[in-house]
Amino acid sequence: MLRLALLAALLFGTAAQAASIERFQSYLRTTQAARADFEQKVYDRNRKLVQESKGTFVFLRPGRFRWTYAKPYPQLIVGDGERVWIHDEDLNQVTVRRLVRAVGATPAALLAGASDIENAFDLAEAGTRDGLDWLEAKPREREAGFESIRLGLSTAGVEAMELTDHFGQITVLRFSNLVRNPTIDAATFRFTPPKGADVLGD
């Protein structure tokens, strides 16, 4: 789902029960940009590991981001604020979509979208696990392509994401070497299709 590849019903209770929502709201308020390494694992509905990949991620709010998959297959996803570009190097193929259509209710919106996440997702507390406070986000759009996203938060920010699609497949991301609010060159979010590439989409 991240390859194409982050809150209206707030549940208030005790301070402990509201930990993940409060942390996520604080993350949205205080994080305008970030960069990190990631590891991604995909499990089928029987929880069998079917794919592993690694790469880097950088974003600048609102709507600018760059996912770089290094292994096992090189792939680049760039959001330039208006469009999302997906470049499959092996196929020399570029897919482009308008940002609103591509990001509205996706994991990228939770990480790099604008602050009005409430319009795209319903949020609920999801307990504590692996030393992280978990938050469940369900997209309001029926055609979002996935059923739910779980975010694992620490005092440093979002450290993990778990996406469940409508077929029971789970994509797990773990972030490391997270740097919040670094200085980022604007050119990071510009993309020009390589010469000779097939360009599909909007």
Descriptive account of the structure:
With 202 residues, this protein is mainly beta. Helices cover 11% and strands 48% of the residues. The protein contains three helices and twelve strands; from the N terminus they run αββββββααββββββ. It has helices at residues 19-30, 99-103, 107-112, and strands at residues 33-43, 49-60, 64-71, 75-80, 83-88, 93-98, 121-129, 132-139, 148-154, 157-164, 170-180, 198-201. The chain has a twelve-stranded mixed sheet. Strand 8 (132-139) and strand 9 form a beta hairpin. The two termini are 19 Å apart. The model is unreliable at 1-17 (pLDDT under 50).
Relevant terms:
mainly beta, disordered N terminus, 202 residues, twelve-stranded mixed sheet, 11% helix
- Mean pLDDT figure: 81
Beta-strand content estimate: over 45%
Helix content: 10-25%
Number of helices: 3
Give the termini distance in whole angstroms: 19 Å
Outline the low-pLDDT stretches: 1-17
Oligomer: single chain
Largest sheet: 12 strands, mixed
Gross morphology is globular
Radius of gyration: 16 Å
SSE arrangement, N to C: HEEEEEEHHEEEEEE
Strand pairing plus helix content: what structural class?
mainly beta
Spatial ordering of strands, largest sheet = 7-8-9-10-11-1-2-3-4-5-6-12
Total E-strand runs: 12
